[in-house]
Give the backbone structure.
Amino acid sequence: MRWIGQRGSTRRGTASLLLDGRRRARGVKPDGTPWAVAHERPDRHSREAMGVIELTDMAVATSVNYRHWAQVEGRVVSHTTDPAARQPRDNGIASVSVLAATCMAADAWATAFMVLGVEAASRLAAAAALGTIFVPSDGTVRSTI
């Protein structure tokens, strides 16, 4: 697995990572190269890749706050709910992608990390040996891949 930094657009052979995307790569492509999955720039108004994740025998899932949202009392709120607070969680994360052995595990971790926030989720991801890409609302990238 490898994060190929930030890119302005997708390249030939890149699969799109759709909203709340999940992908599982098995082996490599016929030409021997890893599977490439676009990592979407967090933007409600456009769909554009900000980087590429290369996968071999690995799954990736991304949870986001910019595709499923509502406006409540003039405030935009995410669909991700903090079970302890019983309300939408606003912790400054626009998206988090997690690499794991299965899509189910990657998706569960990504959703949990959206609730936990970058600092707590980063510690938990390190303890669980998970690759992550956090994109806070300011658009910076924090990656362990």
